[in-house]
Specification:
single chain; 246 residues; Bactericidal permeability-increasing protein, domain 1; two-stranded parallel sheet; 29% helix; elongated; To_sf; Haemolymph_juvenile_hormone-bd
Amino acid sequence: MKRFQALLVFAAVITTGTSNTSMFGERCSRQDPEVDECLLRSFNSLVDYLKGGAPELGIEESDSILIDELSIALGGGPDGYRATFKDIHASGVNNMTITNVRSDLDTHQFQLTLYGPHISARARYRSSGVLLLVRASGGGDYWGEYDGVKAKVYFRGTPYTRNKRTYLKLQQLKLDFSVRDIQMGVENLQNSNAVLQAALNLFINTNAQELLKEMKPELRRDLAAKMSHFLERILDQIPYDDWVKD
């Protein structure tokens, strides 16, 4: 599934290390006082490898992810504005890099800070209700350009033994993100005209951060669920003692 490869970059990046050092980078010693710097190098090495696909992990090359659906609601009552975005394709995620790693190897906890210069999104949307004192029911195409994307991913695992090797079982994963600059809008509107489309786009761009805030809860849940699923797959394949030694 090509569209999920970019998510796998996030998920697999925190499982560095096998005997193939060109793929996973160096093994990191828990005795090293700079172990987080070692993990940072190894994780980014794996990110670079996954950008070209990793058939041995079931990952095909791709630069986009798919989010099935997100909804927002502005205002209450029967005329409150509501919009649903479907088949959201986000591209540019592969350009994200890990800028910082914090770990507690005694409790098997990891926090990654990631940065991406630019992500583009396209989707179909439908809306209902009143916006800017005008009934804005209908549908069309949504576009978004996001600059300066920062994300934090936290996960915790529990070690277990299988075939005399140590693996991690994912226990918890959380994430959050922010965007420095946003441009977004709608086009090809149904049941609309050029004046309403211009008014909608002015409202959307003037309130872009607030609209993103409305989208965040669903978006975080969706991304966390997808990342957890793929991370579980990768942790099941790569022994923990292949990427952390001693």
